[in-house]
Structure formats: structure tokens, C-alpha cells
Amino acid sequence: MKVRGIAELGGLAGTTLGPTEWHEVTQEQVNLFAAATGDHQWIHTDPSRAAEGPFGGTIAHGYLTLALIIPLWTEMLVIEDIGMGVNYGLNKLRFPTPVPVDGRIRLTAHIAEATRLDENSVQLTVDFTMGLEGSEKPAVAAQALYRYLA
């Protein structure tokens, strides 16, 4: 979906977007995330040890899976003619199912609220569900807040 400007963003309440295409989570992504955050726990970065662990292999960090919402969100919603957008925070976040390395995820979004803050800004409250191929439970369930400024 493509929208233009603050006024169109303000009219998105109740809109559901997605799902996106499937995206594979690789060991390279997991290793880069571990290097960036300093979280080198073996369930993420040691395939040999993780094969004997509780998940049968390495899994993505929960916060890596959360971070992948951003590129998938921008795949679903293109916003033109605004000055900027910022992540404002999360109201809710859960990781019901771990994402195995080489697993595939996709995102669905429901815009629960679109609140005009003033004539030059709007806040979106978005309910995200990150699906995991082959799993009935999602990998991520999150309610995020985004602020967009003209």
C-alpha cells in the first residue's frame, strides 16, 4: 500500500496489510546480530552445540526477529511526502515461537489506531504478527507505535 502525507496516514485506522512474502532468517544474519549486540549465546551462534540443545539447532535472537519487522513493514506500507518517521515504542511484545536458522517468516500488520497529534504529525498503533512457516504460533506478536512528522 502507498500513502501520501500525514492526512492519508491519519485515515489508516482499521486497515490490515500483508502478509509479506516469506523471508529466510540465515545464520549469517544471526551472527551479525550477535556481533552487533554482544549476545553470543550458544543457542544462536554455535550450530554444533545447538544441535544437541532444546531447539535442535540455532535460533534467531528474539530481538533480531523483532528488528526484522522494520524492513517487512516498509515492504507493506510506502509513505511519501512526509519529513520523517520514528519508532515511538512498544505497548506489547511476545515471542511465542523461536525462529530456527533457515526458518522463513512473514509479517501481517493491523493498524489499530491512527491518531493525529497535531496538524503536522500522526501516531500509528500497529498490531504486528510475525508468522513462522510451519508453525501455528507466531514468532512475534507486538503492538508498536510509530510517529510520522510532516
Automatic annotation (TrEMBL):
InterPro entries tied to this protein: HotDog_dom_sf, MaoC-like_dom, NodN-like
Domain of life of the source: Bacteria
A Pfam match: MaoC_dehydratas
Signal sequence interval, chain numbering: none
Span of domain MaoC-like: 14-125
Family, per entry: Belongs to the enoyl-CoA hydratase/isomerase family.
Protein name: Acyl dehydratase
Species in which this protein is naturally found: Actinophytocola oryzae
Organism placement in taxonomy: Bacteria, Bacillati, Actinomycetota, Actinomycetes, Pseudonocardiales
